[in-house]
Amino acid sequence: MKPHEHVAAFGTAEGELRVGGMPLSRLAERVGSTPFFAYDRGLLDARIDRLRSALPASVQLSYAMKANPMPAVVQHLAHRVDRIDVASALEMHAALDTVMAAGRVSFAGPGKSPAEIRQAVAAGIIVEVESATELARVVAAGDDLGLTPNVAVRVNPDFAVKGSGMRMGGGPQQFGIDAEQVPGVLREFAAAGVNWLGFHVFAGSQNLNAEIIAEAQRRTVDLVASLAEHLPAPVRYLNLGGGFGIPYVGKDQPLDLGLVAAGLGELVDGALADRLPEAVPVIELGRYIVGECGVYVTRVLDRKVSRGKTYLVVDGGMHHQLAASGNFGQVIRRNYPLVVGNHVEKPGAETATVVGCLCTPLDLLGDDVELPAAEIGDLVVIFQAGAYGLTASPTAFLGHPAPVEVLV
């Protein structure tokens, strides 16, 4: 998607970008300082509505809080989704502070500490175990507390998903129990006093190819069906993962959600109904829900020309928005879509490079971007900033103040 397409999604007013219906300069005044992250409540709702209308009615939607754990965002989404997935004790506490029932909160991720596992068991959330060691700790916590833990087994599949921005399944992984090891682990713990719910398979993230996602879901159902006979109870919970991507750069094409939904509908009505009739299918999404609903706003502090190249130096940078700088695992750095938010209707007049305020050449937010002639005080807006922004960035680097986050 191009910057003008993102501008159209948010809307304009008085020649400025709107966020939550408010002109950007007015929003900046209300926030009181830059930089800041702003998340558009209306766009969040529109994305949930789109997912609800596309996906089969029997498929439950889980929000992966790791994408954006801002409390106001989590509180809002807790009213709109069926489940919340967490990856730490802090995220678990945030989820339990919403209207979401504890039994609809899942806890995934490698390296859960014994203390975190104990808290999860005590709260009654679903622990998605990533190893035999974690499973033993869950059992021990349940015995000690006199409770029956809710357990799902995360499986590292015996297939890889091509086209994912980050592969999280197939081959050797720190995520999940290798598919071929699952039967043995389940035999070992068959008599353990736990509530066996089912399985979680998450093969990769940030995938824009609908056919690949649909194929991964089909293979996931086949895999889980083959493992189901080893589970000491019927499969009632099947987390199919997510991996739905969003376009970050101009050449990216948006995911064909309709094609994904059609394939999922065939699975739900076909193989899943036949082979795992009691399983509730769950799609776990983070980036796809919040990523396109947020912007990062930073103000031009300086404008300089160095040997013919124009630099706009802003008061933000990679310490808040690491991914936009290209330092969040990207193989090749490409510009995120950005605009001068208080002059979005002006045509491009120059090529400028937008850099942050850190003492490193890595602090690059936009390289050779066509923009209106920007002056000191103008507001630069980076789109696709709703997911893996603030909490995925090195905020303590050089000791700059943390940015404000607002849901509008």
Which bin fits the share of residues in helices?
25-40%
CA radius of gyration: 22 Å
- Per CATH, the class of the largest domain reads Alpha Beta
| CATH architecture assignment name of the largest domain | Alpha-Beta Barrel
Domain count:
2
What's the average pLDDT?
94
Helical element count?
11
CATH topology of the largest domain: TIM Barrel
List low-pLDDT spans: none
- Specify the biggest β-sheet: 8 strands, mixed
CATH 4th-level superfamily of the largest domain: Alanine racemase
Shape, principal axes of CA atoms:
elongated
Beta fraction of the residues? 15-25%
- CA distance, first residue to last residue: 23 Å
Let me know the number of strands: 22
- Counting helices, strands and paired strands, the structural category is alpha/beta
Element layout with pairings:
Layout: H1 3-10, E1 12-13, E2 16-19, E3 22-23, H2 24-31, E4 36-39, H3 41-54, E5 60-64, H4 71-78, E6 83-86, H5 89-96, E7 105-107, H6 114-123, E8 126-129, H7 132-145, E9 150-156, E10 166-167, E11 177-178, H8 182-188, E12 195-200, E13 204-205, H9 210-227, E14 237-239, H10 257-275, E15 280-285, H11 287-290, E16 294-306, E17 309-314, E18 338-340, E19 350-355, E20 364-371, E21 379-382, E22 404-407
Helix pairs in contact: 6-7, 9-10
